[in-house]
Amino acid sequence: MTELLGPGDLARAAALLRDGRLVAFPTETVYGLGGDATNAEAVAGIFAAKGRPHFNPLICHYPSAEAAFADVLADERAHRLAAQFWPGALTLVLPRAAACRVDLLAGAGLDTLAVRVPANPLARALLREVGVPVAAPSANRSGQVSPTTAAHVLDGLGGRIAAVVDGGPCTVGVESTVLDLAGNGPEGAAVLLRPGGVPAEAIEALLGPIGRALPVAAAAATASLRSPGLLLSHYAPGLPVRLDAISLAPDEALLAFGRPLPGAALAWNLSERGDLQEAAARLFAGLRWLDAEGTRRGCRGIAVMPVPETGLGAAINDRLARAAAPRG
Ligand code: TXA
Ligand code: MG
């Protein structure tokens, strides 16, 4: 049985984590599947619970930049980014410090580590109480749509983990932006590995131009090299997903943005007023709902209206492209 915990049960959640058990908890981006990052068995348990086909490096979560930077070598750019965007939806990939406490498996044996200080107050209080870095991928079975509510977590992982802390729906709704500062870009330039909750434009306003990993559409051949999590087919609902729809077949469900295409029997609007922040927060819940309802009503697929590529739109389009990618 998976315990359902509330905001008043953080001591219990922290005790479970310190005991090596797995606890899902809310962050502002998506729910994370947490385990003690210094405990090899807990880390192995995360991969097993998710059903990850291979060891894909995990993000470590901390209550403060000071705590995070104890485990990695933070340069001046990292300090500036942390000052501006932490706590928040930005993950920094940095070289592991010699004294790094995080188990090697959590970083998939790489000499770098991804670190983040989430903004959700429950997450921060929990991390403070646990006192060790917490490794946490999104709390879904591998390849499925990320969870933005405790109910989503239980759908995929109920019975496989010790507990989930219910903190209500996530406010950002797409995962953190992953930025590589470990010197893998040309002349050590920062490289955007995954668009996410902090828009690339905001990072470039601080650092100047940053490199981009290949866009999803072009990434199929090389996706597994730099960041093994960036596999192409991901966030996949059961129904096929068709992008950039400008018209609708009678048996298609509609994921709308702005004024909806006419004639949909089943529709979820990301944001009627065309607001990207609202759309990000409603994306994963919408995919899940259309998938379940559409399947129940015999729909053939999900048609998705175009979403602009600016700001949070880049993260939304990245997730939609993966949801629509050929299934491996
Ligand atoms: O918003 C988020 O980031 C959520 C919440 C729970 O914090 N977590 C999340 O974790 O999305 P996950 O495991 O689903 O995605 C982690 C991403 C993967 O694409 C992985 O390949 C990349 O970060 N990553 C982790 N460590 C890395 C490293 N050392 N080098 C390059 N990429 C890394
Ligand atoms: Mg994930």
Automatic annotation (TrEMBL):
GO CC entries: cytoplasm
Q: Which residues bind ATP?
A: 52, 56, 112, 138, 146, 194, 235
Q: Does the keyword Nucleotidyltransferase apply?
A: yes
Mind listing the GO biological process terms from this record? regulation of translational fidelity; tRNA processing
Q: Write the Enzyme Commission number(s) for this entry.
A: 2.7.7.87
- Purpose: Required for the formation of a threonylcarbamoyl group on adenosine at position 37 (t(6)A37) in tRNAs that read codons beginning with adenine.
Q: Which residues bind L-threonine?
A: 29, 61, 116, 136, 176
State if Isomerase is listed as a keyword.
no
What name does this protein carry?
Answer: Threonylcarbamoyl-AMP synthase
Q: What class of enzyme is it?
A: transferase
